[in-house]
């Protein structure tokens, strides 16, 4: 009786294991997919983008972006992140008409922190491939939670200015310059914990860049008062000497030359043949 039930029991266990593995395989892609961010109510649409880190267009999380560009352009935006925030960047590129395209193209969206370090995406299609007949291509990148502090050698995200760069990395040369339209949105989620790691960062990595503006000095910084007449340090007997600002190598060279000259005179005096009188 027991021998007959064993195969059935083993088959049931195998089926349960297979179902569990199937459920895990289905759950993993669902967990890896990132939720699409939604615009903030009443947020104004941004219609510009920068061409470098210095000219990146400033945006806020939840503020939609819609800009026209060309195939081959590098588009930059910047936003500010605080500790405890988790950001999600979603972009859609409307491609040229299929009749004017020559092949597949690969696009990418990258995020850099204030020190120009590329931040890793934990979810989303960061580098999708658009077929020749595709009308649009969608990109998204979910970042790690911004920390309040990190070790100097780590690349963990810290509070400060972040930069988004959208570009095509593998494009048919014949398509360069064709018009495209880009829609982008940065979403943010915060758990309210401004110090998720128990530490504190005194200042952000890099403040927002304002090209063409001169930063004002710190008004609270004290400036040294000019020296009054007669306050100069008196060097005594040698105050009339103006020593040249030479390096120590010059002084050693001069001292060596003097010692060599003295040694030459002494040596000549000792080795000079004495004259005999008479």
UniProtKB/TrEMBL annotation:
Region (Disordered), start-end ranges: 213-233
Q: Which domain of life is it from?
A: Bacteria
> Where, by residue number, does the polypeptide cross the bilayer?
250-270
UniProt name for this protein: Peptidase
> In which residue ranges is the amino acid composition biased (Low complexity)?
216-229
Alphabetically list the UniProt keywords: Membrane, Signal, Transmembrane, Transmembrane helix
From which residue to which does the signal peptide run? 1-34
Presence of the UniProt keyword Transmembrane helix in the record: yes
